């Protein structure tokens, strides 16, 4: 492998789940800039087309594949369709996720189920469907989006925290099972980023003040700041990195 091509993604195809906005869209754009062909996923085809148009205006071509990551049959069929119609998926960014805030003693069962299904089951469903194609090729990269909440608890989000803790350990388990097939499976754990998921927190000055005080970098993250880590974990530069969770959190988990 040529050292100046270590981070190149030319000739690779990446499927990014939950890529109609926020972190997923930023990572997809970043992978494309390094040469990857990208496939954007989300549930809403209209929103995906808007993202596709936005990228086209920047000179970036993107394919779209609308499916619900919680629906295992749809996941298997969509992965098969991408592989047949477009070609091999070399990189999977397992990013789709949701948040729900409520007092734990009153946390509704339906929201618990929705969180487990979207944030945890989907990571297994999509990774398994993609790995079944990667394993015979003996090559592939899977990046599961974890969270600072894989490491730290915060009030009001215990079920979300449970899903992200589980994704961290699922990542290590996948690496343990699939590294022998030359698959690299790692986690990328964002701190606090200004996306729609956090719109209420961004608008809450008290929360932002707490965040600035709690985070060594003393600010919110910008989604573009996740691209470097995503490119590293998707490229040949990470060929012997497996089961690692890379924190991109302004130092929040480094400090008490
Ligand atoms: P956003 O709410 O901005 O975007 C979420 C994306 O996921 C959308 O594209 C949404 O599209 C898609 N999505 C949601 N449910 C499904 C589903 N069932 N099937 C397919 N796609 C789905 O979130 P963020 O960008 O903030 O978060 C992205 C990931 O990063 C999540 O896993 C989140 O937990 C994680 N994270 C975020 C942090 C932050 O500070 N923002 C911090 C740590 C982790 P649509 O609704 O159209 O389906």
TrEMBL record:
GO molecular function annotation: oxidoreductase activity, acting on the CH-OH group of donors, NAD or NADP as acceptor
Keyword annotations: Oxidoreductase
Residue stretches making up the Ketoreductase domain: 12-181
Entry annotated with the keyword Protein biosynthesis: no
Record-linked Gene3D superfamilies: NAD(P)-binding Rossmann-like Domain
Cited CDD domains: Ga5DH-like_SDR_c (cd05347)
PROSITE patterns: ADH_SHORT (PS00061)
Residues spanning the signal sequence: none
Pfam families: adh_short
InterPro entries for the chain: KR_dom (IPR057326), NAD(P)-bd_dom_sf (IPR036291), Sc_DH/Rdtase_CS (IPR020904), SDR_fam (IPR002347)
Homology family: Belongs to the short-chain dehydrogenases/reductases (SDR) family.
PANTHER family given in the database record: 2-DEHYDRO-3-DEOXY-D-GLUCONATE 5-DEHYDROGENASE, SHORT-CHAIN DEHYDROGENASES/REDUCTASES FAMILY MEMBER
NCBIfam families: PRK07523.1 (NF005711)
Protein name per its UniProtKB record: Gluconate 5-dehydrogenase
Organism: Kozakia baliensis
């Amino acid at each position: 492998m040529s050292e100046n091509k270590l981070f190149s993604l030319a000739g690779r195809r990446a499927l990014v789940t939950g890529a109609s906005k926020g972190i997923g869209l930023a990572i997809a754009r970043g992978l494309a800039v390094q040469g990857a062909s990208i496939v954007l996923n989300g549930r809403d085809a209209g929103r995906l087309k808007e993202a596709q148009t936005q990228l086209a205006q920047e000179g970036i071509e993107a394919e779209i594949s609308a499916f619900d990551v919680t629906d295992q049959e749809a996941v298997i069929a969509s992965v098969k369709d991408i592989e047949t119609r477009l070609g091999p998926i070399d990189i999977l960014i397992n990013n789709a996720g949701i948040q729900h805030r409520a007092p734990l003693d009153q946390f509704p069962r339906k929201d618990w189920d929705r969180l487990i299904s979207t944030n945890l089951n989907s990571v297994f469903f999509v990774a398994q469907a993609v790995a079944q194609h990667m394993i015979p090729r003996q090559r592939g990269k899977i990046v599961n989006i974890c969270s600072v909440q894989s490491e730290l608890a915060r009030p009001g989000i215990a079920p979300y925290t449970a899903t992200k803790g589980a994704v961290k350990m699922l990542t290590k388990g996948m690496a343990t099972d699939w590294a022998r097939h030359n698959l690299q499976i790692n986690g990328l754990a964002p701190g606090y980023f200004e996306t729609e998921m956090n719109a209420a927190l961004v608008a809450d000055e008290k929360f932002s003040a707490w965040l600035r005080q709690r985070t060594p970098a003393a600010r919110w993250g910008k989604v573009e700041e996740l691209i470097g880590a995503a490119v590293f974990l998707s490229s040949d530069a990470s060929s012997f990195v497996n089961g690692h969770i890379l924190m991109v959190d302004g130092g929040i988990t480094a400090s008490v």
